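Before relying on records like the one below, remember that each one covers exactly one chain. Contacts with other chains, cofactors or solvent are not represented anywhere in the record.
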Amino acid sequence: MRVPVLIVGAGYAGLSAATMLAWRGIPVLLVERHAGTSVQPKAFGVNTRAMELLRPVPGLEEELAGIRQGVGDGIRIAVASSLTDPEPNVLFDTSASPFPTHLSPAADLGVPQAEVERVLRAKAEELGADLRFSTEFVSLEQDDDGVTALIRAEDGTETTVRAEYVIAADGYRSPLREQLGIPTSGKGVLNHLQSIMFDADLSTLVNEDEVTLWYLQNPELTGVFVIGTGVGAHVLGVSYEGEPDPDHEKLVRLGVGVPDLDVTVLDTATFTTAHILADRYREGRVFLAGDAAHTMPPTGGQGGSTALQDGCDLAWRLWLVITGQAGPGFLDSYDAERRPIGELTADAQLANLGFRLPPAQRVDDYPEPLDDPFGALLGYRYHSFAILPEFGEDGSLLEDPRTPHGRPGGRAAHVVLDWDGRPISTHDLFGSGFVLLAGPYGEAWVEAGRAVRDQLNVRLAPHRIGGELLDEEGVWLERYGVTKSGAVLIRPDGFIAWRSMSADLDPAATLERVLLRILARTA
């Protein structure tokens, strides 16, 4: 069989890529060796940036928000000896540190990964993606024109798949990464964790209407409690060496701190905590995403969201190339842009782990925590040929999203606009293609956008602030850093690719030159 894109793995990276490709009309085949998506809650929470990338798909944001039923409100993270510890060290409490909602139209989502995967699977299939579970990737060979892969169904039937590109979203062990010979760095495997889903009455110890993440440090047990996630059970993760302890009820009672607690164990699984960074994200026509690219400790809760962003990011880039809007070389920008951010996020979570481990288990050469973790959520920056830098570019990876200035390489700021009497966000314009936003005196840029769009056959929507879009708060010029006659070019991922501070003598020629360079259609 033939397909433009083959995806290996149905975790966050694979499912988000399948969903976003199918939404853009690109046929996709996804294979997953397991029989279905996860039953265990796994990662908890989808951050705001990941939601911004997913929300252009009609209905997806609402369906994801709909799975919040039964999930506790707010998140509380603490270090304690057990749930009965009278003085836990509270590290984070959303009631004390609410998210600044004025920075984005998308709300972060406090839900377990198992439920998010279920929604993404359904949406991908609804949009026409071919998802095959209980199907194993066996091998592949590449040539100049594509990839030939062998897959095997549960009954042993083997099928040869011819694809233009392959996304390796097959987990931290990543057989595909191994087969391609892509080396890795990082701290490697850090520890092993046994996950125990159980039912017990903990109402006198914690607020079950709140998501509680308790890091346990006592002489008998090191692990973590996760409560209030809406999966109908509590979860205890216990670190182990060698083989996991089979006495699950004992472990739960130790973690809770109640020796005679009535416990019903519902499910168990084992996981590995690791810090593994792929040295490159691309090998020919194969691209690494999610844990195959960057495995990180869960301390910080950004691993799942980073994987979702990888899948979304690959989808729009592959769409541009497969539809001929960008040259094949455009795909080199994926490694150049996503790998530094994956490494930064993984190192930040490793730093968090060092702080939350018992003192006897801490390692001296762990990285230092970020000065402003919030900057890594919405303030990370990209640098590649697909971003045209301005004079004085400092190459920084982070900026403060609370004070945006519209530099190329940064995320476009959220500004509320009026469109024909209806309030929208600037982010409501992003996702389907490139967007050119011009200032109030920038009509020449809008006309140039229409002409260049047709000439280059590129999906581009030009708009003028002060035309059909009204900036009633009067903040757009400041947040995008242009004059009234300037313009800003925003990519499908909502990142600024280029801007002109003012009017241009020949805006059509300038814009054509800019797009050809960004899309790798000219040197």
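The two ends are 35 Å apart (CA to CA).
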